[in-house]
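Researcher: Quick test of sequence recovery. Tokens follow.
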């Protein structure tokens, strides 16, 4: 330690700035800013004088050669020579610059670092590098750096995250969300399957597969592989008909997403509601227009005798028109009452269906459903069909009452998909490598922002409660 403190890291000599090889070339701009007027060139030297690899004798300084880290001019590397065997050696900068590379590792990683924050075109990436570091790259170089160094950079971050998760003892809780989403890779439809922990937000698995390979068997393989060796308490899913049999075979309970259940009914119901509302608005407009015309006719006849003369043909036509409009309005008002009643009934049953699972306990929810089900014949065909299907799987919609940590919806994994791959990005990628690299980076970002930044003591307490309850 004392030797390190006693040795200078840099010094000025004969118009040269001598810099030891433990200083990153990325910091050379600092010397230019503060000492640039005192030197003409920078010479890198070995902090510890090298020994000859052949005879192990101490090597002597013997001139220098040009070096161009980040393609900067005016930088040289000191040459050393063995006085015994003549073996030569140049100052080693490979801790900062990969052999045969023109750029430091830090610059090579800039493109992938920007990608880890958000999507940028390669043109914008090189502009940011120029702005931040004063180094000009072209787009092809940025793409090459990302392709070459991206995997190493991401793998290192993933390993560091896993170590941190292990140190913090953040483990799967046994309560998971599962879902799929569709995207396009160079125009080819691709399926993305994911499982995340409902309590800790841990990503259990996230995989891409071409649509042609996606079927029930693959879903089962994916779930079995992902949950192997993990606590298995409950899986929150949407209402896909293939799930119940698969979930039963992998020995885990199922909680159906309440939001998807209600949405499946409301999607059909809202079409009818929208149609009724449009018709009601049309009827109201027609009645209003007719009333305005009737008022004009009455104004025309105001102050005139009720007895019509033979020559009052215009007045006769207007009175005939008024009677026709009155008859139309009577018909419109009758239809309007019927449509309003139908609309009110549809909205009422929608509200009752929405409120089934809003009860404080399981018994109350079951009681509400049975009350609605006994009145099934009063409802439209779509609602009857919905209630019959819900009756078959109602027990899978009320598992969340048994444990306060079980969510009633699959919204968390929907949010995970939208955050890690927004809708605008689902058709942007041309290669599988680029798509996978993006998703890996966003998984790291998700873990940093949604797992590590949570109140971890509270998470661990929740997991302990869940495990003790089981």
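Model:
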């Amino acid at each position: 330690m004392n030797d390190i403190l006693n040795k200078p890291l840099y010094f000025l000599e004969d118009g040269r700035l001598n810099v030891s090889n433990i200083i990153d070339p990325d910091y050379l701009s600092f010397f230019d800013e503060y000492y640039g007027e005192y030197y003409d060139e920078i010479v890198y030297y070995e902090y510890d004088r090298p020994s000859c690899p052949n005879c192990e004798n101490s090597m002597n300084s013997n001139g220098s050669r040009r070096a161009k880290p980040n393609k900067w001019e005016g930088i040289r590397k000191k040459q050393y020579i063995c006085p015994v065997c003549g073996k030569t050696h140049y100052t080693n900068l490979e801790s900062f610059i990969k052999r045969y590379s023109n750029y430091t590792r830090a610059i090579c990683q800039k493109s992938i670092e920007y990608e880890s924050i958000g999507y940028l075109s390669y043109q914008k990436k090189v502009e940011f590098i120029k702005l931040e570091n004063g180094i000009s790259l072209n787009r092809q170089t940025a793409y090459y750096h990302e392709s070459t160094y991206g995997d190493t950079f991401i793998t290192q971050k993933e390993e560091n995250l896993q170590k941190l998760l292990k140190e913090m003892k953040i483990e799967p809780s046994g309560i998971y969300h599962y879902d799929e989403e569709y995207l396009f890779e160079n125009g080819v439809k691709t399926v993305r399957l994911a499982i995340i922990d409902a309590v800790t937000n841990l990503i259990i698995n996230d995989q891409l597969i071409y649509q042609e390979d996606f079927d029930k068997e693959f879903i089962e393989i994916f779930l079995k592989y992902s949950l192997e060796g993990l606590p298995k308490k409950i899986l929150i899913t949407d209402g896909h008909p293939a799930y119940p049999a698969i979930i039963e075979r992998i020995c885990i309970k199922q909680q159906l997403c309440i939001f998807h259940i209600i949405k499946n009914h409301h999607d059909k119901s809202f079409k009818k509601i929208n149609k009724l509302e449009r018709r009601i608005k049309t009827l109201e407009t027609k009645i209003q227009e007719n009333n305005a015309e009737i008022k004009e006719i009455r104004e025309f006849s105001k102050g005139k005798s009720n007895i019509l003369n033979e020559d009052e043909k215009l007045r006769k036509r207007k009175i005939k028109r008024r009677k026709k409009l009155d008859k139309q309005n009577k018909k419109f008002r009758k239809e309007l009452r019927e449509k309003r009643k139908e609309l009110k009934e549809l909205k009422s049953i929608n509200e009752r269906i929405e409120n089934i699972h809003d009860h404080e306990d399981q018994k109350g929810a079951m009681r509400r459903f049975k009350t609605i089900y006994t009145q099934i014949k009063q409802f439209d065909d779509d609602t009857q069909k919905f209630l019959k299907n819900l009756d078959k799987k109602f027990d899978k919609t009320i598992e969340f009452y048994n444990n306060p940590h079980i969510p009633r919806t699959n919204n968390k994994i929907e949010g995970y998909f939208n955050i890690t791959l927004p809708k605008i990005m689902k058709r942007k990628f041309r290669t599988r490598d680029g798509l996978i690299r993006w998703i890996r980076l966003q998984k790291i970002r998700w873990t940093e922002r949604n797992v590590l930044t949570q109140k971890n003591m509270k998470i661990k307490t929740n997991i302990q409660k869940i495990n003790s309850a089981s």
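The CA atoms of residues 10 and 79 lie 17 Å apart.
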